[in-house]
Amino acid sequence: MAMAIILVLIVIASVLFHLLAPWHAAPAASNWGSIDTTLFITLIISGIFFIAITVFMAVAVMRFRHKEGARAAYQPENKKLETWLIIVTSVGIAAMLAPGLVVYSDFVRVPNNAYELEVVAQQWQWAFRFPGQDGKLGKSDIKFVDSSNPFGLDPKDPVGQDDVLVINNEVRLPLDRPVKVLLRSKDVLHDFYVPQMRSKMDMVPGMVSYFWFTPTKTGKYEVLCAEYCGVGHYNMRGHMIVEEQDAFDQWLNSQPTFAQTLTTAAKPSRDSVLKKGRLLAENLGCSACHSQDGSASLGPGWKGLYGRTEQLADGTSVLVDEAYLKESILDPKARLVQGYPPVMVTYTLNDDELGALVALIKSLGAAQQDNEPSASEASGPGDDLATQGQQLAQSLGCLACHSVDGSKGVGPSWQGLYGETVTLADGSTIKADEGYIKESVLNPGAKIVKGYAAVMPAFTPSDKDLNALIAFIKSKANADADASKAQPGK
Ligand code: CUA
Fold this sequence. Notes:
The chain is an alpha+beta fold and about 500 residues long. It has helices at about 1-20, 30-65, 80-105, 245-255, 260-265, 270-285, 285-290, 320-330, 350-365, 370-375, 380-395, 435-440, 465-475, 480-490; strands at about 115-120, 125-130, 165, 170-175, 180-185, 190-195, 200-205, 210-215, 220-225, 235-245, 310, 315-320, 420-425, 430. Strand 1 and strand 2 (about 125-130) form a beta hairpin. Helix 11 crosses helix 13 (about 465-475). Dinuclear copper ion binds near residues 124, 227, 228 and 233.
């Protein structure tokens, strides 16, 4: 008896909870109505089944209670009951799924006057692109992606030059204008989800998915990644601000176009090309097998290589020129130098990257003409190094866990970290200086800051990258920390 009453009370409480719940959110986008209606249909259908099944249980508990000597009847086949159950559940499931098809087809049938917004995902951050004056997005391809072109836009496509790039986690949209959202991922599956807009779709590497909606209410909405994409997934968040057209236009004008980012990022001076070559040689691991100082290694050393004639394994010889170097990077086994094992893996680099590596090898060439000044270490003043460090922090994903604005993340914020004294998990304290930060990057588990989980994977950047990262972290130090550091130095 008590059990039956509890079951009935559960039903009544659930229904009352739904009817009396105080949450009645105001629609914020055009697709709100249809998507919420679909969800409501599903709620009603599953609600009816929930009530029916729970009440049936209560009745069964009452009617078939245990009596002395009573036995349950065994009824293995009941055609009539089975037929009814199949019909009722089929209709119920169809009624839950069919409206979704209608709503989905509307979700992806974009009106002609829709504005375009491209969302680019990578572990663990968002970036956004708008078409420029011409109203069209330029072509993109993953092969163009590098540190100066994070969107992978085709530098030769005139349509893409005026595209507006938003390289951070906050995007804005104009009020009351339909927007077509194009979704692209650079690495793994992500999912672009703006709950309050009722918009959500997977981002699949190698394809462009899309949907549309019209924001109808100004405000700041949260953007979430809704597909598990690695340790930083939970922190892959952003914001979508919907505002009046005027304010939006003003904001959009303040964002850089693709052409602008290209000219500021890559003034292809000889120095910067060489710098890029060095960075690549380290990041790709070339330096592990190719020395740059003439010492012996697994592959031919680069010093004095360019312009030399090499004996090949098949007995022929070749002049080491640009074409040969490029071929050897793209297809290392094509023409092997005698005396070296065929162990190099194939690298697929774009023209820019190939050019930078070849320029570097050239600069180490036999006839060392004008490269002395640039060979005297390219890492310029601190500012430049810090910028490099910022790029690295972005590409390595550090910023998914370490904020630079003082907000709390999975790891300690970098804002004001350098020079501070931090308390470790074992109760001891340590000053966050170069040595400590280096150790924390290379071996994060060694000294954990109190209050943080030991979840950071070890990174093995080159010395130069490590210095760039530290320069960036230093640049985020508090003014007074800087001062206290400067004084003892004097
Ligand atoms: Cu990106 Cu989860």
